[in-house]
Amino acid sequence: MTILVIAEHDNLTLKPATLHAVTAAVEIGGDIHVLVVGFGAQGAADAAASVIGVSKVLRAESDGYAHLLAEQLAPVIVGLAPGYSHIVATATCAAKNTLPRVAAMLDVAQISDISAIVSVDTFVRPIYAGNALATVASSDFIKVITVRGASFALAAASGGGAVIETVSAGPTPHSSRFVGQEVSPRTRPELTTAKIVVSGGRGMQSGENFHLLDAIADKLGAAVGASRAAVDAGFAPNDYQVGQTGKIIAPELYIAVGISGAIQHLAGMKDSKVIVAINKDEAAPIFQVADYGLIGDLFNVLPELLSELDN
Amino acid sequence: MKAIVAVKRVVDYNVKVRVKSDGTGVDTTNVKMSMNPFDEIALEEAVRLKEKGIVTEIVAVSLGVPQCQETLRSALAMGADRAILVETVAELQPLANAKLLKAIAGRIEPQLFLLGKQAIDDDCNQTGQMLAALLDWPQGTFASKVTLADGRVEVVREIDGGLETVSLSLPAVVTVDLRLNEPRYASLPNIMKAKKKPLDVLTPEALGVDVTPHLKTLKVAEPPKRQGGIKVGSVAELVDKLKNEAKVI
Fold first, then answer.
1. How far is B108 from chain A (nearest CA, A)?
2. ipTM of the complex as predicted
3. All domains of chain A, ordered by start, with CATH?
4. What is the mean pLDDT of each run of 10 residues along chain A (311 residues)?
5. Residue B8's CATH number
6. What SUPFAM superfamilies does the database record attribute to this sequence (chain A) (predicted)?
7. Can you give the pTM of this predicted structure?
């Protein structure tokens, strides 16, 4: 049994998402190959070769792969697929975009966002915004899987010694082309891999007030998140959103500030180890999942919290 | 140009679902059902494109049980011109959905397919991508802006860390994200008018599509319950608990 893990990378570096997928692949069991498709992706390929558990890195290079559109990446994976029992990637935007395209080209189902592995063909995945866990068995000859990063630890990024092999790049389809990208500047840890996340909701009242969270996040080395209400109101950028339709995270500590705790938000954070809720509404549903709840006005609580953390 | 919008009937997003005690699934009897929220956004976008004179006809398609007709009537009330139901009581998984939609595309010959990015029941996020693959059309997933011009569609996509813009040649498949638009409410006169709009019923057999599931659900369980927490009286107490009890800071 050989498993193909699809690397997520920016050509120079390997993204942590890849390391969650490798852990899932190790749990499935088998020889693990990592596919790096890109342009000038030597750095990413080297990094993938150092990941413990990986035996081979396949590298496909073409100037057409600079932005990795699904229409370009999918045929490369499909071309390699017959040699593999499983094709695995972490359920990031990129993998969610590409792997269903791969699965349909292979005429197999995709198993989305798995949170546990029962056996080589049986997996657990959350449905209904995480309110139920379905155990599903696949009858397909190749299992195409995306894994929930929050459910699988990071594989060790160094110490491995996989060989790097070049695979031929196919022609690049022209039906789609990359126009541009606008990426939010980031000085804090990535939301999906941060150990601590401080999130704000509608209760923050304005985007300016998010600096109160920023200060606490910086103090704790945390990432900043937001509820959909806060994003919709323009208080925070879209990619801050934690929830069913945003990012699904499971940090050590999640601090929810001015967030009521709608089903869709809980879907994104209820697997956090410790949840703290700060809200002035005693009846807010967030208190039902919070390990520590503090009832109070966030505009009084946050500055006090900041000064308390200083001590 | 013609546009097809795929709409799914799902448990209403406000309903707190219950897992059946025999572990076979989620209890959907006597539960409020409505159009998947992402599909409402897809439909709204199609209607706006029609209002701009870019789209000439909107065909709403739903796949599933006879009650999906209600979802299609809502779609017609929002502005779809006609509707197609592919009726079956069989369990439909994304790959089967994609095959059925491809077969419908063969009959309608649309330039644009609009779908929601995911359904809030199975949370799969697959059908649009699979449909694009089967048709060999380009895909614009997680769209927060859609612009049609010169035989192409430009899609601003929500990606991890920000936004990405891609340009796709038509015909294309676009799946929509939450922030694309604010769907309209159907007015009473439009709801009445929708009753007279055409709604055709087909079957997977008539379309020649095998809908046999590739995945078998063995069990559906409740997620583990979180331990009840405590309320703290002050910020000092909170910080103390986090440091000394939970040991997370």
1. 21
2. 0.96
3. 2-166 (3.40.50.620), 196-310 (3.40.50.1220)
4. 96 95 98 97 97 98 90 96 97 96 98 97 96 97 96 95 92 88 84 94 97 96 96 93 93 97 95 97 96 98 95 80
5. 3.40.50.620
6. Adenine nucleotide alpha hydrolases-like, DHS-like NAD/FAD-binding domain
7. 0.95
